[in-house]
């Protein structure tokens, strides 16, 4: 045995391949050994894992309400090391939104977050995504009968009831208690909930509803609708804007609105965009209901990531809460956010 070991070591040194070489088949000197090869895997190596890709779909990309949501989504994507694509129709269009989402399903994206133009029109595409293994959540505007996992939003009904209580308070000493409602896309689940809840409080309290006018989430259309309503009802006592599209633009394009507000018409409006906050400070708007724009992107992307990566379960509805702005001082707090771009605090 010792003789063999010495002979083998001597041979290995002579061959220059060291003591780690494979054992010889016999004691006879073999031909020079090939260089040792790395062990080959029994299966093909796995491809490098690509970053997750989520599609975030607003009702319309031309609506400034969604700009802060986009910023939030981008910030969260950067933190998580994922990609979030901003995919939506230029203007509010449920059919176009569904087509864009179908294209994303075909690309096999990893998840979707959708603000639905219409709950029924978006239900089939949401269900197709879920059936294809693509998790879907909704934010801002829901499709409650779809297979979506959860809905991230303020409680639209609670916020609208609060808005109605404020309108009742503002008009309590006025003999004229007529009011009109401005809405966006007819049938949008979030807007319908706001209108219904507002009227459930306002009408029994003695306020007199005149009309509900849609503007299809379009700023210019909203301006025209409001001016036309005030032409038809110049003595309107109150205006509830379930979305404040006309207030996003140039107030000078609405001379009838300005005149009515200065004459005492009370305005309760959704959202806390920069123009609206300035109008509140000027006394042309009297209460603003603020949604968590930044959270529609930042928080909701985090929720979808938790679902996809961490397999976390969420309830059907996640309540964001809402902000209420009634005083110039409160308006200044949010104007500072617009100025600095810091919406995290």
UniProtKB/TrEMBL annotation:
A cellular component term, taken from the record's GO annotations: outer membrane-bounded periplasmic space
Pfam families with a match to the protein in the record: Peripla_BP_4
Localisation: Cell envelope
PROSITE patterns membership: PROKAR_LIPOPROTEIN, TAT
Domain called Periplasmic binding protein: residue spans: 54-312
Keywords: Signal
Gene Ontology molecular functions: carbohydrate binding
Signal peptide: 1-28
Family listed: Belongs to the bacterial solute-binding protein 2 family.
PANTHER family: ABC TRANSPORTER PERIPLASMIC-BINDING PROTEIN YPHF, D-XYLOSE-BINDING PERIPLASMIC PROTEIN
Protein name (database record): ABC transporter substrate-binding protein
């Amino acid at each position: 045995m010792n003789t063999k070991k010495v002979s083998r070591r001597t041979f290995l040194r002579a061959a220059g391949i060291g003591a780690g070489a494979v054992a010889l088949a016999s004691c006879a000197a073999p031909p020079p050994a090939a260089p040792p090869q790395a062990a080959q895997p029994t299966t093909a190596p796995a491809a490098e894992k690509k970053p997750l890709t989520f599609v975030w779909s607003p009702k319309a990309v031309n609506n400034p309400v969604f700009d802060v949501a986009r910023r939030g989504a981008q910030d969260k994507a950067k933190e998580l090391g994922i990609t979030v694509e901003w995919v939506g129709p230029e203007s509010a269009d449920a059919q176009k939104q569904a087509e864009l989402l179908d294209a994303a399903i075909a690309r096999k994206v990893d998840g979707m977050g959708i603000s639905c133009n219409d709950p029924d029109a978006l239900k089939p595409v949401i269900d197709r995504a879920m059936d294809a293994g693509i998790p879907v959540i909704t934010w801002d505007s829901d499709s409650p009968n779809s297979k979506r996992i959860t809905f991230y939003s303020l409680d639209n009904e609670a916020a609208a009831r609060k808005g109605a209580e404020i309108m009742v308070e503002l008009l309590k000493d006025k003999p004229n208690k007529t009011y009109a409602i401005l809405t966006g896309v007819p049938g949008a689940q979030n807007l319908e909930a706001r209108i219904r809840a507002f009227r459930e409080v306002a009408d029994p309290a003695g306020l007199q509803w005149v009309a509900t006018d849609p503007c299809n989430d379009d700023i210019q259309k909203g301006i025209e609708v409001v001016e036309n309503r005030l032409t038809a009802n110049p003595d309107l006592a109150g205006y509830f804007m379930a979305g404040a599209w006309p207030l996003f633009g140039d107030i000078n394009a609405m001379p009838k609105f300005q005149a009515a507000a200065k004459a005492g018409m009370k305005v309760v409006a959704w959202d806390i965009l920069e123009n609206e906050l300035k109008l509140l400070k000027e006394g042309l708007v009297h209460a603003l209901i603020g949604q968590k724009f930044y959270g529609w992107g930042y928080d909701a992307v985090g929720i979808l990531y938790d679902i996809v990566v961490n397999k976390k379960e969420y309830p059907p509805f996640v309540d964001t809460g809402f902000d209420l702005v009634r005083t110039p001082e409160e308006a200044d707090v949010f104007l500072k956010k617009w100025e600095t771009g810091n919406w995290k605090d």
